[in-house]
Amino acid sequence: MSLIVFKQITKSYQEGLRRKKQVLKGLSLEIKKGEVFGFLGPNGAGKSTTIKILLNFIFPDKGEVRINGQPVSNPQVRKYLGYLPENPYLYDNLSPQELLLFKGRVCGLTAQQIKKRMDEILSRVNLFQVKKRPLRTFSKGMVQRAGFALALINDPEIL
């Protein structure tokens, strides 16, 4: 079974008062577990729109998207996803440790699972030594690494 399935996805946006711009037309795609997949294309090709539909941030006009056989509208599919937006907003008064604890709880991890994953991930992104410092004291690169750690805390199948 495929991990991600897009079936005949169509999406249009309103452009001006009367005109619609179709950015996706009949997109069908299957991605199997273990595959590495990326989107390439010019501005306006529908790359970001496709990702937003996968994350259930926006809805297609037609078609369906499934993750592990479940529709993306099912809240249970969130456990499979790790997402880092281009410009994430992270509360700068919190530390990486506090952010990961919060996200781990939201994802249903136990305190023991969070602690184990947190130390491993913060070491991997080179933030272990500063895990208790507030993000407002971090450089932009350090904040980006904290965001990446946040996307990894629930050990997602899809990143």
UniProtKB/TrEMBL annotation:
Keywords in alphabetical order: ATP-binding, Nucleotide-binding, Transport
Keyword 4Fe-4S included in the entry's annotation: no
Top-level taxon of origin: Bacteria
ABC transporter domain segment(s): 24-159
Pfam families xrefs: ABC_tran
Gene Ontology molecular function: ATP binding; ATP hydrolysis activity
InterPro entries listed in its UniProt record: ABC_transporter-like_ATP-bd, ABC_Transporter_VariousFunc, P-loop_NTPase
PANTHER family, alphabetized: ABC TRANSPORTER ATP-BINDING PROTEIN ALBC-RELATED
Name listed for the protein in its UniProt record: ABC transporter ATP-binding protein
Upper classification of the organism: Bacteria, Pseudomonadati, Thermodesulfobacteriota, Candidatus Desulfofervidia, Candidatus Desulfofervidales
